[in-house]
Predict the 3D structure of the following.
Amino acid sequence: QVQLVESGGGLVQAGGSLRLSCAASGRAFNTYTMGWFRQAPGKEREVVAAITYNGGTTDYADSVKGRFTISRDNARRTGNLEMSRLKPDDTAVYYCAATFGGLSATPRVYEYWGQGTHVTVSS
């Protein structure tokens, strides 16, 4: 089993940057694909980025490509999402998730979820 805890959310001006972190409970995390998802008020949860168990492959939503970077440090059992050039449309609750399956943009295939961290981008 995997337990995930996000941190790093907050309030930032448009054009600014934030770094989100996801701390995992144990070494099992190192065998899991991880993803970052977000849910804005009134909208469905959507994928932001995903990364394979060893960091070999990454994928990004078109809306964040070139601005966000997903990474992981398996030795520290930590995932990260670096966000730059933030826009008001990036405002959402951001979730870290993990699955024993492969790279996926579909929330329902992810078996483990963090509690979420709020990101608010002001104009």
